[in-house]
Write a structure and sequence with these properties.
- This protein is mostly helical and 277 residues long.
- It is 64% helix and 0% strand.
- It has seven helices and no strands.
- The protein is globular and about 50 Å long.
- 30% of the residues are buried.
Length: 277
């Protein structure tokens, strides 16, 4: 099972390694090819866990995902709160820039690993907490009360997305995955380029005063974040159904955290446009 959320796109995450029989004779059909399966053999395309061995890890469960998501997001919130309350104003922009760059690199590193490292996930959460705290304090200085409103908007949007996913039984198709992946990568690339250029006073995305253009950009960002939440939910649901290794709970928690942070930033930006006008 594969998600097109760039954070969760490990095509082999839930797929056991295939074993080949080096002694199979030429022209002899593979076992189970003619409509029957030998006892204990999986059907084609079916995830089939290996026989349990003493000390082997368990399987992915919803309780594990909830627990690890709470740990990861709790780390983000705690670090953000400490940064928001105690970081001096003169360090806000340096901390924001450094944490944004390091956080982006950490996402790429964690996402590229076949076996996810819980320590790296928590390191990302701490780094992203510094970024969230610094950004929130900058926005709060400019628009008093915007942070609680953005937090509430983020939680309501995430809850509404989860409710729609469950109650309307949203099906994630390959076309949907591909469209969300392309849109997310394009949007992230444009944001990152704008971020780098803005450090040299050449930002082009949010420097204009056209409210309609700014609202359109924010609407695209919020929409893509919501679509990625749907991919996150689908990844977790499919992983549980396919009895993925328990370590994949950390990947699910990691993907949810990345998307929730993104959604919060988009909500901050969107609300700031309304407060400015």
């Amino acid at each position: 099972m594969r998600s097109s959320n760039p954070v969760l796109s490990r095509p082999d995450a839930f797929t056991p390694q295939q074993q080949t029989n080096p002694y199979q004779q030429y022209g002899q059909p593979p076992q189970g090819q003619f409509g029957y399966q030998q006892p204990g053999q999986p059907y084609p395309g079916q995830y089939y866990p290996q026989d349990p061995v003493p000390g082997a890890q368990g399987v992915m469960t919803i309780d594990d995902v909830i627990t690890k998501s709470a740990i990861t997001m709790g780390t983000v919130i705690a670090t953000a709160a400490l940064t928001f309350m105690f970081m001096p104003a003169r360090f806000l922009f340096p901390a924001l820039i450094v944490s944004a760059i390091v956080g982006f690199i950490t996402v790429l590193v964690v996402s590229a690993r076949r076996v996810i490292n819980p320590g790296a996930v928590l390191a990302y959460a701490a780094i992203e907490g510094v970024f969230i705290g610094a950004v929130s304090k900058v926005y709060e200085y400019a628009w008093n009360g915007i942070v609680p409103a953005a937090v509430m908007a983020t939680l309501v949007t995430a809850a509404a997305t989860l409710g729609a996913y469950k109650f309307f039984r949203i099906k994630v198709t390959s076309k949907f995955r591909k469209m969300v992946m392309i849109g997310t990568m394009a949007y992230a690339g444009v944001l990152f380029l704008n971020f780098i250029l803005s450090m040299f006073g050449m930002g082009f995305l949010f420097s204009g005063g056209n409210l309609i253009f700014l609202l359109l950009i924010s609407a695209i960002g919020v929409g893509l974040a919501v679509f990625n939440l749907i991919l996150d939910f689908d990844y977790i649901e499919q992983g549980i159904a396919m009895r993925a290794p328990a370590s994949e709970s950390w990947r699910g928690a990691f993907g949810l955290t990345v998307t929730m942070v993104w959604l919060y930033i988009e909500m901050l930006r969107l609300l700031s446009y309304f407060r400015s006008n």
